[in-house]
């Protein structure tokens, strides 16, 4: 029975080690990996002793037990200190390693001298082997070493519990209970002279606890990464919370703006006892529909924005961040501007609109200039832009449950001329080819979508609204994606394709169908709309496609005028 238990413990150690590798790929878990490795080595040693058929083999297995056993306490101490964000002096680590090395020196001399074991023999009962040993004077070093490391762990946890608020009480208490349990089992084994090494199973419980805490460790690191990435924005403060609104951390600027933050405990929600923060932060986190607001603090007016935090390639929601900026001067300036007469306001508005129109014309001019290189798509930019304008007008009229807003639809119409900017990167021999592409040429041509997204983002950065930049980038990057995932460049599918790109795809394909190209004749409207309808659910969003087909009258009127002129 005991052989099976030790064997299961060894197998579980390997499994836990592999799980930790998978869960900790993007986290700083080096100490935990070494800890799990040490536990695996030690458990293998225990299993090997039970199955040993000679004293020499059992002694060798016992060396493995101590090889893992002396490093487990050190690594556990370093792991707990790292989790509690406490620095460990290098001299202390070197001293512990030196202590461990001395113990291992005597362990590996078992059988050669009597310093560690004064007497050792192999005993077999019921097919199970045990080492019957009498301890020598140097064996005392091992329990002293174990208790020293455990004491260091308890000290780290105690300091974190009473004097640091950046570590969760739950994490500290879990680790503290695990340490006390480990001490109890270790002492019990020695007092009862048990032949069964129950610490094997205590180590497994420690591994399970660490795996449970890994996700929380990852959340703390997300908060750290955000703080580091935004450190240079000295005028901004950042408060980070998890999905349940538990406080995770902040940068120093927040403490300057909101000194009450220093009283918050990591992993706890803001309570009503902290009335100011409760009213101005916690309640705002609960109001998901209101993401921007102001906090008035004395003469300061602080602009706050609530943002959702995502993690990983699948953009899983992991928390919320409140961005705080001192907006006092700008607000005072705005109030000062409000005192000017209506004529000045109208002049400013007229100037702003003029600048906006200039920007739109410049962007359209750039798009036309790029299109002039393409011998097969003359007028495509102009026509697709008008198709998108007609389409978005219909979408606004229908008001289908996509969460459309007038601003969104206006941005889509404005961004349409830029959807093929990536063609500027395509070689003239391909772009101006008077005929169908070869497979190799088509693969090169397909690259224009991804490159177009990058170009749009760079061209508009610092000039346009961030929301518009994202919409324009998505339209350029993803307008060749298909509903069933067979499109390019990223093979997105369904609602994973940005809404604006799905709108652009319908306009782009429709113009290609009804327009004459160097490699094909134009199609009549019946055929074109039939192809669109047949492609709903495969190429196009089925709901958007139905609305697009409903635009037929306006679209045909436009193309009739366009082709006649």
Notes on the protein architecture:
By secondary structure, the chain is α+β, with helices and mostly antiparallel strands. The chain folds into three domains: 2-223, Rhopdopsin 7-helix transmembrane proteins, CATH 1.20.1070; 234-337, PAS domain (Beta-Lactamase, 2-Layer Sandwich); 342-564, Hypothetical protein af1432 (Orthogonal Bundle). 60% of the residues lie in helices and 10% in strands. It is built from 20 helices and seven strands. A hairpin with a 2-residue loop joins β5 and β6 (300-311). It starts with a helix and ends with a helix.
Layout: helices, strands, pairs:
Layout: H1 2-23, H2 30-50, H3 55-83, H4 90-107, E1 117-125, E2 128-135, H5 141-163, H6 169-192, H7 199-229, E3 236-242, E4 247-250, H8 252-257, H9 275-286, E5 292-297, E6 300-311, E7 316-326, H10 328-337, H11 342-371, H12 380-398, H13 406-415, H14 428-431, H15 439-460, H16 466-478, H17 499-514, H18 525-534, H19 542-549, H20 552-564
Helix pairs in contact: 1-2, 1-7, 2-3, 2-7, 3-4, 3-5, 4-5, 5-6, 6-7, 12-13, 12-17, 12-20, 13-16, 15-16, 16-17, 17-18
**Portion in beta strands:** 5-15%
Terminal CA distance: 92 Å
CATH superfamily of the largest domain: Hypothetical protein af1432
The overall strand count is: 7
CATH topology heading of the largest domain: Hypothetical protein af1432
Looking at the structure, what is the overall shape?
A: elongated
């Amino acid at each position: 029975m005991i052989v099976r238990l030790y064997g299961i413990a060894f197998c579980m150690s390997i499994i836990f080690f592999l799980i930790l590798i998978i869960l900790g790929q993007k986290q700083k878990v080096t100490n935990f990996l070494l800890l799990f490795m040490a536990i695996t080595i030690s458990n293998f040693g225990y299993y090997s002793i039970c199955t040993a058929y000679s004293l020499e083999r059992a002694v060798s297995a016992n060396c493995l037990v101590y090889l893992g056993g002396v490093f487990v306490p050190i690594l556990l101490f370093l792991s707990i200190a790292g989790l509690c964000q406490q620095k460990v002096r290098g001299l202390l680590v070197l001293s512990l390693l030196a202590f461990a090395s001395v113990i291992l020196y005597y362990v590996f001399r078992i059988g050669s001298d009597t310093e560690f074991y004064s007497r050792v023999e192999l005993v077999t009962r019921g097919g199970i082997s045990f080492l019957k040993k009498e301890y020598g004077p140097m064996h005392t070093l091992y329990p002293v070493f174990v208790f020293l490391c455990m004491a260091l762990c308890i000290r780290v946890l105690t300091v974190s519990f009473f004097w640091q608020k950046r570590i969760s009480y739950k994490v500290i208490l879990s680790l503290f209970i695990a340490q006390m349990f480990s001490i109890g089992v270790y002492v019990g084994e020695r007092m009862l002279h048990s032949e069964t090494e129950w610490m094997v199973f205590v180590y497994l419980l420690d591994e399970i606890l660490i795996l449970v805490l890994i996700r929380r460790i990852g959340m703390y690191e997300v908060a750290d990464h955000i703080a580091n990435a935004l450190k240079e924005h000295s005028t901004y403060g950042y408060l980070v919370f998890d999905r349940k609104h538990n406080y995770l951390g902040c940068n120093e600027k927040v403490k300057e703006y909101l000194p009450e933050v220093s009283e918050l405990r990591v992993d706890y929600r803001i309570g009503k006892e902290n009335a100011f923060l409760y009213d101005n932060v916690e309640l705002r986190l609960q109001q998901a529909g209101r993401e921007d607001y102001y906090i008035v603090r004395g003469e300061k007016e602080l602009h706050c924005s609530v943002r959702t935090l995502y993690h990983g390639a699948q953009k899983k929601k992991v928390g919320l961040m409140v961005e705080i900026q001192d907006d006092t001067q700008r607000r005072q300036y705005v109030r000062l501007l409000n005192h000017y007469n209506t004529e000045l306001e109208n002049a400013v508005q007229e100037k702003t609109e003029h600048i906006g129109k200039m920007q739109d014309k410049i962007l359209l001019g750039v798009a036309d200039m790029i299109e002039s290189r393409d011998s097969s798509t003359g007028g495509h930019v102009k026509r697709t832009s008008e198709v998108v304008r007609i389409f978005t007008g219909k979408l606004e009229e229908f008001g289908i449950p996509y969460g459309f807003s007038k601003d969104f639809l206006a941005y889509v119409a404005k961004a349409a001329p830029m959807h093929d900017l990536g063609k500027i990167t395509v070689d003239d021999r391909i772009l101006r080819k008077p005929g169908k592409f070869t497979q190799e040429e088509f693969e090169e041509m397909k690259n224009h979508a991804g490159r177009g997204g990058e170009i749009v983002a760079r061209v508009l950065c610092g000039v346009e609204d961030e929301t518009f930049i994202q919409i324009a980038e998505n339209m350029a990057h993803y307008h060749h994606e298909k509903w069933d995932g067979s499109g390019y460049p990223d093979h997105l599918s369904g609602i994973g394709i940005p809404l604006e790109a799905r709108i652009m795809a319908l306009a782009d394909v429709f113009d290609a169908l009804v327009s004459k190209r160097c490699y094909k004749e134009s199609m009549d409207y019946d055929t074109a709309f039939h192809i669109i309808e047949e492609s709903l659910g495969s190429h196009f969003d089925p709901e958007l496609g139905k609305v697009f087909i409903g635009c037929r009258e306006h679209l045909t009127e436009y193309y009739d005028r366009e082709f006649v002129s």
